[in-house]
Write a structure and sequence with these properties.
7 strands, tt1808, chain A, globular, 7-stranded mixed beta sheet, alpha+beta
């Protein structure tokens, strides 16, 4: 087994899928949809994973999207180009979390009506080389850290009020907190 960094997208998606499914299984009323196509008036495209919140058993709302590619800089550019804020959210204030990952490097972003923000100054990395797999304690620790972040973001978005003013206040609070760190 070679390092994940050198593997193809399908192999990296196996690792990513396991982590995302674990995070989603820890919370209620969430769906994970692989290879979901997002469509809008101005643009459309496929994301590797979309996590949706089930509302009243009838409706679903996207709360997180994930792109997993070999080059994370390409991922960030893809997510920025995917949709402009006003195209994605319309006139109401809204936000969604994004995860950009290579399976080893993980970045967490918040895409709101007013902009795109990184949610943490911390680097999150899972080493998936043969040497790292020989040390399962370190591997578990790094996977646990990433799961904690994903579950925290999903919990935040699930509990967000549906009122646009409250969502805007919540995003401003997150941005202010990140500037202080």
């Amino acid at each position: 087994m070679g390092p994940v960094v050198d593997s193809n997208e399908a192999m990296r998606c196996e690792y990513i899928s396991t982590i995302l499914h674990t995070a989603v299984s820890l919370l209620k009323d969430l769906l994970i949809l692989p290879q979901m196509t997002l469509t809008g008036a101005e643009s459309s495209g496929r994301v590797d994973y979309a996590i949706k919140k089930i509302i009243d058993g009838l409706f679903e709302e996207i709360i997180c999207i994930t792109e997993g590619k070999q080059n994370q800089r390409m991922n960030l550019n893809m997510l920025k180009k995917r949709r402009k804020s006003d195209e994605a959210f319309g006139s109401e204030y809204e936000y969604v979390y994004g995860i950009v990952t290579t399976a080893t490097d993980w970045y967490f972003i918040l895409h709101s009506t007013v902009g795109i923000y990184c949610t943490s100054k911390t680097e999150y990395r899972i080493s998936l080389t043969e040497d790292a797999i020989k040390n399962p304690a370190e591997l578990r620790k790094n996977v646990k850290r990433i799961l904690e972040v994903i579950v925290g973001l999903l919990k935040d978005r699930i509990s967000a009020s549906e009122e646009p003013a409250n969502k805007k206040c919540r995003v401003e609070e997150i941005i202010k907190k990140k500037k202080i760190e």
